[in-house]
Specification:
There is one protein chain. By secondary structure, the protein is of the alpha/beta class. It has one domain: Glycosidases (TIM Barrel). The protein contains 14 helices and nine strands. The chain has an eight-stranded parallel β-barrel with strand order 1-2-3-4-5-6-8-9, surrounded by five helices. The longest helix has 25 residues. Bound molecules: (3S,4R)-3-hydroxy-2-oxopiperidin-4-yl beta-D-xylopyranoside. (3S,4R)-3-hydroxy-2-oxopiperidin-4-yl beta-D-xylopyranoside binds next to loops.
Length: 398
């Protein structure tokens, strides 16, 4: 009898510590885990029919991957289909086909969607900034276009998308404001205006600023100094997104991002990592950042792992993500979410950036959509931490 009781108690104990089956489950007490999704993982109907390839990648039906995407990620972000050139290709002409497919699929799988992105100088069609004669529009006209763009899109997705990257990449790496068309016509006001319009269009959703190279102190400080007075005056902004396109061996990201998270927290905002990936390939010309118009010429020496990533490189990759996730856990009070950019290596944009046509290994799933060892190691790390915390709680009680 006594033995049976012990057995029952043991079973209850292990059930409580049951192994998490996914990244989102393992990290649920710390932050939300997400991934970007492209139309071929949802349903590439439109793309296949019209032969469109928004990112330059081959069009392929990868819908079979969605099962793993839904298992591991509670949040998805569209990789391309909500960008201006796709969703609003001409003035007043909106095309929600791909975006609706993605949102419907995510909601049907119990996931949440973050919108990416409303105001960005890249992947923004030229009509946005010129009149019928091709002359640059006035500040008033651009404001009206921004307002219409934001109101129409947020109106369309009302109740289905919980947060949006409102402004993307408005700063240079030295912390100064980028001289984009938005800036040239409206000055720095285009940033708070975009947040104001988004809040007016839908006061129920979260609004984010998003940028790359946010590990660089000059950049994060430039961004934070810009937003400090606006936040003090009540600007409707909920978090700052740091893209996190990283290059293996390029500096101490853990230490740098810890500094960035704390700097952002100093103005009362949370941080989120919005586009995580890690290139394992050589770095051309000390390149950094994610400015999509930066391109370097292909050289074979820059593409050394065409037949597979060596074992020691895979181990370095795994250790990198363990250290990175430990840093996120250590800063959990100030970190909202960690989102990976692209589900698998086959479809990762890093194969074509900043050099076209390389074989990179930047994501957590391999070219055959098989989880790399990294995934289980990340789950195990969270699990053992949970066990340790529970043990400590228990011994504190006694
Ligand atoms: C990239 C996509 O992954 C590619 O498919 C596309 O060709 C170019 O844009 N910063 C961003 C993302 O905010 O939207 C970019 O996505 C990567 C850099």
């Amino acid at each position: 009898m006594k033995k049976a009781l012990y057995l029952l108690a043991g079973l209850a104990f292990s059930a409580q510590w049951a192994n998490a089956q996914s990244l989102q489950e393992a990290y649920k007490d710390y932050f939300r885990v997400g991934v970007s999704v492209n139309q071929w993982e949802v349903k590439a109907e439109k793309e296949i029919k019209e032969g469109i390839s928004y990112s330059g990648a081959v069009s392929l039906d990868q819908t079979a991957d969605y099962e793993q995407i839904a298992q591991h990620f509670g949040w998805v972000v569209p990789e391309n289909c909500m960008k201006c050139e796709v969703i609003h290709p001409q003035e007043g002409v909106y095309d929600f086909t791909l975006a609706d497919q993605l949102v419907d699929k995510a909601l049907a799988n119990g996931q949440q969607v973050i919108g990416h992105c409303l105001i960005w100088h890249s992947q923004c069609p030229p009509w946005f900034f010129v009149d019928e004669e091709g002359k640059q529009v006035s500040a008033e006209v651009l404001k009206k276009r921004m307002r219409d763009h934001i109101f129409t899109i947020l109106g369309h997705f009302r109740g289905r998308i919980v947060g949006w990257d409102v402004v993307n990449e408005a700063f240079e790496d030295n912390g100064s404001l980028r001289r984009s068309k938005f800036y040239q016509i409206l000055g720095e006001d285009f940033i708070p205006l975009a947040f104001q319009y988004a809040h007016e269009a839908d006061p129920t959703i979260e609004l984010y600023y998003n940028d790359y190279s946010m590990n660089k102190p000059a950049k994060v400080e430039g961004v934070v100094n810009f937003f400090r007075p606006l936040v003090a005056k009540g600007l409707p902004i909920h978090a700052i997104g740091m893209q996190g396109h990283m290059i293996y061996g390029d500096g101490d990201y853990v230490q740098q991002y810890t500094h960035s998270i704390k700097t952002i927290a100093s103005i009362g905002l949370k941080s989120q990592f919005t586009e995580l990936d890690l290139t394992m390939l050589p770095n051309p010309f000390g390149f950094s950042g994610a400015n999509i118009s930066d391109q370097a010429a292909y050289k074979k020496a820059m593409d050394p792992y065409q037949d597979g990533l060596p074992k020691e490189k895979q181990e370095q990759f795994d250790q990198f993500w363990l250290d990175f996730f430990q840093m996120l856990i250590d800063n959990k009070e100030n970190v909202l979410r960690a989102t990976f950019w692209c589900f698998n290596d086959a479809k990762s944009w890093k194969n074509d950036f900043p050099i076209k046509g390389r074989t990179d290994y930047a994501t957590l799933w391999d070219r055959q959509s098989k989880a790399k060892p990294t995934v289980q190691k990340l789950i195990d790390m969270a699990e053992s931490l949970e066990k340790k915390n529970k043990k400590e709680k228990k011994s504190n009680k006694n």
